Amino acid sequence: MASISRANPTKVAADELAARLGRWSDGDGPLYRQLATAIAALVRAGALRDGDRLPPERSLAAVLNVSRGTVVTAYDELRAADVVTRLQGSGTTVTAPPPAVDPATPRVGEPLIQPPAQAIALLMAVPTALPRVIELVRGIDWIGHADAVDQSEPAGLPRLRAAIAERIPADGLATSPEQVVVTAGAQQAITLATELAVRPGDVVLTEEVTWPGLVDSVRRLGGRVHGVPMDDHGLVPDELVGAIERLRPTLIGLNPHHHNPTGTRLPPARRERIAEIAADYGVPVIEDRVAAPLAFDGRVPAPLAVHQPAAPHFLVDSVNKTAWPGLRIGWVRTDAAVANQLRSVRANIDLYSPIPSQLAALAVLDDLEAITSERVAQLAANAELVRTELDRRIPDWDVPEVRGGLVSWISLPVGSASAFAQVAARCGVAIGSGREFSSSTVDDEHVRIPFTAPAPELREAIARLATAWEVFRREPAPPAVVPAERAAVV
Asked: 169 phi and psi, to 5 degrees?
């Protein structure tokens, strides 16, 4: 993968366009006008994009079972409306401008960073610092690293990139330092990847509920996010194929192990199949690995890219959730040429990560196995505490068993999850509902409960949730929102 190129073909086959047009001739008026109207509608919806070349008149006429003159006149109408250009020898090309980026578009994840005053905030799944990590950082000889403090490489300290590159092959993916770009956490890595790959009007596929930082990053660039259906094991491969063929995405963003927010794990066969699908269609994949090592049973799979190492990908990871969120150090692993492109994008955003944080990350990587063991033990105990307390205090909730990660995803037996979250906030505990994690459909049935806070805080939070549930059940609650496509977002 020498560079990130557009995954979507620009030449649209006649049978492909006919399939997208559907029942285009069921309306009133001459056929050529109905055809022109239907094609223009596909352009407005983003199914046809700037630069797409439409089929030759004879080919499309044969597939649609109309005269060549009908198609010629329809194309002429589209040219008059500035929807296409027509050049002898070059065919008919879509020239509609991409959708404008609306700065007023609401960010789905914004409620997660605005906790109510005087409430226990269970909004962000951010664990507390491990004492072991604090001691490691305290012991760093900053003066001895004076040479590094003066370095300002956007891709990160060479020593840190080398240390990260040495760890990734343990997951089965040979890596050189040139393939690694250090970032200010996994969120910045996701933002950089979308900045490089997404243009206005592009479609990005992800799970039907997902981390809102991906959704908001895509939408900020004028892209559109489409959620692919999931089951109890995660994203469904056959649904991914259908979405790729229908929407021609420029990127796929996945969180396949200890998925945030559902906690699902993709089984090995499904992981391999999804990697194969993305490679076959040439669509780059962003794989978020932040929660992958936080497995209570020790089952940590290899990255998806292991199954298709030559395919375009962005492997995103971080030490923040495992060691200490205050470090704000993550990274992205990709092709060396793409890493160099990311380096340039990074330089335009904040130049480089703070050197003290990078040096601290080096110390953490040297002791990462022990640190991960401590974190997993802490999270497993907290997850059991949350499950036990919820079962005791709110017995009509069906609390799933959690196998790893940072959160529990709970389906409410009745009512609107977003309405319950508002009641919970009034009772002194702030939680996220499915609405904040929705990609293209609105989930109003689930709440997300992180188990990253200290145990006493979790107990008190669940006691307040129990009070909120009693209040909620007494009040005439609005019904849950029926999942429906967000027309403005897709």
From this structure: -60, -20
